[in-house]
């Protein structure tokens, strides 16, 4: 397909023959842009790339909280007791006693931290810059992340896939976990799967909740399916609502026409 008649390309992913220089503006309905950045020619073409920004942070916060509350409220224990007709008090763990380290302090990460903090959860942030953000108790760099990771009950990744984040969660980082639960709602390729399995075997990671994996759909022969210490969901933590996506595109179009600041413009050097 050659877009000789178009100025703008809009879609979830690029078509097979698409090249950035064919248009002046590309808008993706996804929050992540790694499938577009795999194409060459962005710098040379000067093509604008924007992404969809909606309530992804709210949705991801609710997704993560559902699993955190399930554990804090001992749902599995209570369900087993009901099956056995057993009346035995199990004390829930208050959210104010839970500590979370969140990798990714952008718009999505900040929203998750804001929601968690309102519930009394202590939230630390990890980013490459280490820039402090008011939504977090404190923020540090990836290189210094162990100081917060080792005292956290949950480690959550919202990271996009970039050259820097590819395979970031490997044996080095997993060794700093202190029997924490790992939740990945960002991109599957930021995790070294073999190292994650080893960390589960060593119990430095006590459970992994993976909404994203490095190959999607996850093949039926993957060992991840059969592990009781791994929970798999099919990339549903922040599904794109088409009405919200269209509204974001329209708002972006208006901002371009009015020469306003674009908060969803992709930084090619950062990769998001």
TrEMBL record:
Single GO MF annotation: NAD binding
Entry keyword set: NAD, Oxidoreductase
Top-rank EC class of the record's enzyme: oxidoreductase
Domain D-isomer specific 2-hydroxyacid dehydrogenase NAD-binding: 66-237
CDD domains in alphabetical order: 2-Hacid_dh_1
EC number(s) on file: 1.1.1.79
A Pfam family recorded for this sequence: 2-Hacid_dh_C
Record protein name field: Phosphoglycerate dehydrogenase
Species assigned in the record: Staphylococcus gallinarum
Lineage: Bacteria, Bacillati, Bacillota, Bacilli, Bacillales
């Amino acid at each position: 397909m050659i877009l000789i008649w178009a100025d703008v390309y809009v879609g979830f992913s690029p078509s097979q023959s698409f090249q950035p220089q064919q248009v002046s503006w590309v808008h993706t309905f996804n929050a992540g842009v790694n499938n577009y950045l795999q194409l060459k020619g962005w710098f040379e073409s000067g093509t604008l790339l924007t992404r969809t920004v909606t309530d992804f942070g709210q949705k991801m916060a609710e997704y993560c909280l559902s699993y955190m509350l399930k554990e804090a409220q001992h749902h599995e224990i209570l369900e087993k007791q009901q099956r056995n007709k057993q009346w035995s008090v199990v004390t829930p763990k208050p959210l104010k006693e839970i500590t979370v380290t969140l990798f990714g302090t952008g718009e999505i990460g900040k929203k998750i931290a804001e929601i968690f903090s309102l519930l009394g959860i202590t939230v630390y942030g990890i980013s490459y810059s280490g820039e402090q953000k008011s939504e977090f108790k404190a923020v540090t760099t990836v290189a210094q992340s162990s100081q917060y990771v080792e005292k956290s009950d949950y480690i959550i990744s919202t990271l996009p896939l970039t050259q820097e984040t590819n395979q970031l969660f490997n044996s080095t980082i997993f060794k700093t976990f202190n029997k924490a639960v790992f939740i990945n709602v960002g991109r599957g390729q930021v995790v070294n799967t073999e190292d994650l399995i080893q960390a589960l075997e060593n119990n430095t990671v006590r459970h992994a909740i993976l909404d994203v994996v490095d190959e999607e759909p996850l093949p039926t022969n993957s060992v991840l399916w059969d592990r009781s210490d791994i929970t798999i969901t099919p990339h549903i933590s922040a599904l794109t609502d088409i009405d919200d996506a269209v509204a974001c595109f329209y708002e972006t179009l208006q901002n371009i026409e009015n020469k306003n600041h674009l908060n969803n413009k992709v930084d090619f050097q950062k990769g998001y």
